[in-house]
Every structure is written in C-alpha cells, then in structure tokens.
Design brief:
Helices cover 44% and strands 21% of the residues. It is an alpha+beta fold and 326 residues long. The strands form two sheets. A seven-stranded antiparallel beta sheet has the order 2-3-4-5-12-7-10.
Length: 326
C-alpha cells in the first residue's frame, strides 16, 4: 500500500512506476515505458491545475491518501474504474463521465486501481491555497456543502470541460501561461461555486471572524494534545467560545462534531504509527489517547473494517516506493 500526503508524493508515485518526467514550460509530462501511457499536468499543482491521464497499471495499485490541505477534484472519465472508500461500509466506484471528489478533512481515503485495465480521464484540481492566494473568500459552509452536493450527485458542467479543452490547447509557456492560467482558474471557480449552489438545498453560512479564529485555535489545541485532549467545556474556555457556537463551527468547517474530529485525528495518527513504528497495540492505543485497548480495537474496526494488525501488515509488507524516497 502506498501512502500519499501531498501532491509532491503523488509525483514521486509516477516516478516509482518508471515514468520519465519532463518540464513542458506550462506543466509536467510523465511518460511511461508503455509508449501509449502518460500523465500530463498543466498549471500549478499546488494551486489550480488540470491533468490528462491515459495509462495501464500492470498490477493492482492500492493507495492511502491523507492530504492536509483541502481540495476538490473534478474528473471526466472515459475509460476504466477506481474504487475508493473512507470506510469499508461506504465503498464508492468512479463513474464514466463527470465526477467529483471533495477532500475536506484529514480522513484517510483508500483507493484501489485494478491492474491490467486502461484508465483514461481528464482532471481539474482546486487546492484550497488557490482560493486563499487569489483573495477568494469562500463561505464557511462551502466545503461541507460541496461534499454533500456535487460529490454525491451525478453532475454536468460543459463549461468546466470547455475550460479544460482551452487549457489543453493553449500554446503559451512560462510567465504568460501562468498569468493566463490564473484567469482560467478564476473562471473555473465561478462555475464550481455555481455547481455547489445548484445542488445544495441549504443557504450559504458565514461565520464571524472571531468564531473562525476560535475554531482554528481549538483545532490546534486538539492536535497538540491528541493523547490527552481537554474536555469540550475546557476547550470552550480556552478559546472563549460557548459550546453551541464551537460545535456549529466544527460542523460547518469540518463536517464533524468536535468528538468526531478528535476520533478522526486519532485514527490518522494510528495509521501512521502502524506503518512507521514497531509499537505494540497497547502502546499505540495509549499514544492516541484511547480509553482502553478494547475501545481502541472497537473504534478502529468500525472505521476501517479490519483489525489494526491486518492494516499494519498491509501498510508495512507492501513496501511503498514513495515513502522510501523521502
């Protein structure tokens, strides 16, 4: 199993498959030993970019993606299938045509690409940093609305496909391309927001600046004290926000209650310890703040459908060529 935490590790994955990387002046091209297989990117992979993928995976590929920055991926799939899930009770298979993935929290996403099949799709990717760096203030319920609207419905947007086609044919390189591409990203963002609004029943929700600062502070406190997290009331006192407001802010920005957010971070750390350490299950349970070893096993199996030992074997025995290069 290959673990991916960032777009840079995704690029290393292609390299581990034997691809040769070329700077095209407006993106990156990866060509594989099979002359008909390639991966082509246009734009800033850490902001707004598009990709064209046409390749055959020689064998099954299993990945665990755990990105720390939120992003949205729009795909236009012509051939092949990808199976993904956060938990085994919620398996999703990619659709032919237009599809959407919303990564709005650090919950691990497991993905399997069956070997021997040809996978052909176009992709359009919006990193949260693109919105931030261009002064686009998204309303505070945007990520949760996107997850429950465009990621859950069969969607159509010929305008986004048209933007992709313009980018694909653009002859510009260097700084002129970067400036032009920023404009394409802004136009695509407008259509993305329209899509979310079209498929969302609830009106947009905005939080006060003070509430946003409080919830970010609360998240940092939780991350810094994951083995011994303060109670919700203690957390409210530390960030000077009442319980109802703090819970609402977590629900809007993470799609989870405070308790669910804590459990997510604990499971995220558990996976890292299973993969990278030789700690016993008791030691891992203690490290992530589990109340007891039985409670640790119960929550883990509810989340991933397997025992920690089974997941450890998957993570450690199938050595991943990405992490060994880091």
């Amino acid at each position: 199993m290959i673990t991916i935490h960032s777009i840079d590790e995704t690029l290393r994955l292609y390299g581990s498959l034997g691809a040769r990387q070329t700077d095209t002046g407006n993106g990156e091209l990866f060509t594989l030993k099979d002359p008909s297989s390639y991966v082509r990117f246009w734009g800033d992979l850490h902001g707004f970019c598009v990709a064209s993928v046409d390749m055959i995976f020689p064998e099954d590929l299993m990945t665990r993606s755990q990105f720390y920055e939120r992003y949205i991926g729009i795909s236009f799939t012509e051939k092949g299938r990808v199976v993904s899930y956060n938990r085994k009770t919620n398996i999703r298979e990619s659709r032919i045509g237009m599809d959407c993935y919303v990564f709005n929290s650090p919950v691990p996403l497991f993905m399997k690409i069956p070997g021997g099949q040809r996978l052909r799709f176009r992709g359009m990717y919006f990193q949260e940093s693109f919105f931030r760096e261009n002064g686009l203030r998204l309303y505070d319920s945007f990520w949760e609305d996107a997850k429950h609207s465009i990621a859950c419905n069969e969607i159509h947007s010929p305008e986004l496909l048209s933007i992709f086609q313009r980018i694909e044919k653009c002859p510009l390189t260097g700084e002129p391309f970067r400036i032009w591409m920023r404009g394409q990203g802004m136009a695509a963002t407008g259509y993305l927001l329209e899509l979310v609004q079209r498929y969302t029943c609830a009106p947009p929700v905005y939080l006060a600046d003070g509430d946003i600062a409080a919830v970010e502070k609360a998240k940092q406190i939780i991350r810094d004290n994951i083995a011994d997290v303060p109670t919700i009331l203690e957390l409210c006192k530390k960030v000077s926000l009442n319980k109802n407001k703090l819970q609402k802010a977590f629900q809007l920005t993470e799609g989870k209650s405070i308790g669910e957010y804590i459990r997510t971070l604990r499971m995220e750390r558990t996976l890292d310890l299973l993969e990278k350490s030789n700690m016993t299950m008791q030691e891992i349970a203690s490290d992530v703040g589990s109340q007891s070893i039985s409670n640790f096993y119960r929550i883990f199996q509810q989340k991933f459908g397997e025992t920690p030992q089974t997941i450890r074997r998957m993570l450690q025995n199938m050595k991943d060529p990405v992490s060994t290069e880091l």
